[in-house]
Amino acid sequence: MGSLSSPRGFLLVLLGLCAVAGPCSALPLPPPLMLHESFAGKSEFRTINRRPLESCFNPSPYLSIDVSTGGPLPDEAFINVTVGGVFRPDGSHWVAMITPSNSSVSGCPLSGVNYVETGDLAKLPLLCHYPVKAQLVKSDPNYLGCKKAACQKRDASGACKVRTCGATLTFHLINFRTDVEFVFFAGGFQTPCVLKRSGVLRFANPAKPLSGHLSSTDSSATSMKLTWVSGDGRPQQVQYAGGSRSATSVATTFTQKDMCSVPVLPSPAKDFGWHDPGYIHSAVMTGLQPSQSYDYRYGSDSVGWSDTAKFRTPPAAGSDEVSFVIYGDMGKAPLDPSVEHYIQPGSISVTRAVAKEMQTGKVDSIFHIGDISYATGFLVEWDFFLHLIRPIASQAAYMTAIGNHERDYAGSRSVYVTPDSGGECGVAYESYFPMPAAGKDKPWYSIEQGSVHFLVMSTEHPWSEKSEQYKWMEKDLSSVDRTRTPWVIFIGHRPMYSSNLGIPTSVDPNFVDSVEPLLLKNKVDLVFFGHVHNYERTCAVYQGDCRCMPRKDVNGIDTYDNSNYTAPVHAIVGAGGFKLDGFSIIRQSWSISRISEFGYARVHATKTDVLVQFVSSSTMEIRDQFRIVKGGR
Fold it and tell me: Contact 390/211 with Cβ under 8 angstroms?
């Protein structure tokens, strides 16, 4: 979920119109033709939008911009960009990282609409094509005072006649395959004019296989899917189990034509924010054993191999226990001082905290339940997100649910006609995160691990009683074997209960009316949602009524006894990274715990007990915890 402002509200309407015209008892690079090339498409809207780019007034003849690469760009680096030869340092000077290098750097005043429609109200560069990163030169504290001076011309006595100023900025760069250029601007983000360009920089290996992440394929835990990104579309391999086994990948991709848009206002994904995704490879590792560790690497001799990594399979369905981490609404944030589209300030602390959890060896799976990258039509940001989660998603199954910022847009057939996906319409999400779903554009699925049956739904696709998804949920929940998996956990993105007073409201009463009775009928034990950017836990609730309240156990932990089932417990875990939401002053009777801190839920389930702990990512402290038990324990 993102904040709704007046401008965005106007756009939402515009796009919508367009879419319609008591206690509880119960190496070597591949041939050029195989590389997926990228270009910045030019739309009619962009032509109208483009402001003729005037040369900066009387620029210094000594201007320079130098990049400390020492050769072709590596897969990841912190690069120093030095500007020099400036007569008068100004607070409006800035440097952008542009990709591909032939992207337009003309000023487009209306490009701000592309940011606003996805909910990002930050002041960002108004170029005709989205710059990956930008930094004001004054972020170097030595710039405005000209503390890094250089003498450009001396008189006969050796005294300096022409002195200029400079600055050095640091940019974090990853291999997103397309070539790069750094551009020095004056005029600020709103009225840019070019001072100097660095020249084209290319990655040493744009075909390099990168960002491998895992997912479960079924409940047997005898196979795992690995998905990675490369600039090469030819089949590659994953080699595993000490190199004794291998699986060949299938490569897919998507193009600008696959993105959603409307005639009046081309979406960011279709135009301003497009970046070529390269190829997305997936391969299934089979013949595995549950709860066992395996090493692996992926790639090929022609494009190179990844480093060797290690993962552990989850426990098989029906085994005694399972441990997992769950959160929503993460996104990403820069590792340098740059401004970018949609920065999620808590994303780095949460991923680092989960990485520490992984080091304990007690995390079988990770569930990320909607609002995944917040790329929202600015496609290069998927690469940065995949890079961010790689340390955790490469070690255990990274299971996902779709959210509004992956799916919703005019013409997408989503339940909610908002511009939140920036025109991606679920295409990028389903490409990068192939779940064991019902089918293409049917991103709902169930899977069992240990003592838990997980049902993962899409709150963005139709869920009414006559919908395909509802019928699937009804059939899936009614067929659970409680002797094998005594716990049923229901997962989606938009919540049924929240104390946040968002605009629009965080809770859709129609969704609650349609789906909540299904949860009660099938005795769902626990429900996890995101969308609201905080943590909140309910009593065992149905139709706004507390059917039972938890009791303290001997350790002082709130405990719900489901031996005599009354209703599900709901927990919002949307504190994975996006700017935090608060709570209403008036507290509803069903709201038990409310915490507005970045973090995630740590869950451990046995046959008779589920322990849920909300962990603050900044301190690793448990900020709330509760148990659900069966058998009177």
Answer: yes
CA distances 626 to 532, 569, 594, Å, are 20, 10, 13
Residues 51, 508: Cα–Cα separation, whole Å: 42
**Phi and psi based region of residue 219 (left: phi greater than 0; alpha: psi -120 to 50; beta: remaining):** alpha
Non-local (6+) Cβ contacts of 232 within 8 A are 30, 34, 35, 207, 279, 300, 302, 303
- Spatial distance between the Cα atoms of 324 and 460, rounded to a whole number of angstroms: 25
Q: Give bridge partners of residue 227 from the DSSP assignment.
A: 213, 282
Q: For residues 450, 452, 456 and 459, what is the CA-based torsion angle, rounded to 10 degrees?
A: -160
Helices (H), 196-295: none
pLDDT exceeds 80 at position 32: no
Q: CA distances (Å), 406 to each of 1, 195, 318, 431, in order?
A: 11, 37, 33, 11
Nearest to 322 by CA among 29, 580, 607, 8: 607
Give the chain's mean pLDDT. Answer: 91
Mean pLDDT on 327-334 = 98
Neighbouring residues of 592: CB distance < 8 A, sequence distance ≥ 6: 537, 538, 539, 549, 550, 558, 626
User: Could you tell me if 444 and 456 are in contact, meaning their C-beta atoms sit under 8 angstroms apart?
Assistant: yes
Tell me if 452 sits within 8 A of 485, measured CB to CB: yes
By the 8 A CB rule, do 329 and 309 touch? no
Radius of gyration of the chain from its Cα atoms, rounded to whole angstroms: 26
Cα–Cα distance measured from residue 129 to residue 96, given in angstroms and rounded to the nearest whole number: 11
The whole-angstrom separation of Cα 435 and Cα 448 is: 14
Q: If we measure between CA atoms, which residue out of 490, 478, 449 comes closest to residue 606?
A: 449
Q: What is the DSSP letter of 52?
A: P
Give the per-residue pLDDT at 70. Answer: 80
Block residue for tokens 């009804």 = 474
Burial class (CB in 10 A: 0-12, 13-18, 19+), 242: exposed
Specify whether the CB–CB gap between 195 and 63 falls below 8 A.
Answer: yes
Nearest to 633 by CA among 574, 551, 578, 546: 551
Question: Using one digit for the tens of pLDDT, what is the confidence trace for 73-108?
Answer: 999 999 999 999 999 999 999 999 999 999 988 889
Q: What angle do CA 134, 140, 143 make, to 5 degrees?
A: 110
The 10s digit of each residue's pLDDT in 213-254 is 999 999 999 999 999 999 999 999 999 999 999 999 999 999
Token pair of 120, please? 């990002």
Cβ partners under 8 Å of residue 101, min gap 6: 178, 179, 180, 181, 200, 201
Residue 317 structure tokens = 């369905």
Residues 6+ apart with CB under 8 A from 212: 226, 227, 228, 298, 306, 309, 390, 393, 394
Q: CB–CB of 37/276 below 8 Å?
A: yes
Model confidence at 69, in pLDDT bands (50, 70, 90)? confident
Main-chain dihedrals φ then ψ at residue 56, nearest 5 degrees: -65, 140
What one-character-per-residue DSSP string does 92-105 give?
Answer: T-EEEEESSTTS--
Contact (CB, 8 A) for 332 and 344: yes
Q: Any bridge partners for residue 86, and if so which?
A: 165
Strand-strand pairing, 551-552 and 599-605? unpaired
Burial class (CB in 10 A: 0-12, 13-18, 19+), 439: exposed
- Please report which confidence band the pLDDT of residue 51 belongs to, taking 50, 70 and 90 as the band edges: very low
On whether the CB atoms of residues 320 and 297 are closer than 8 A, the answer is: no
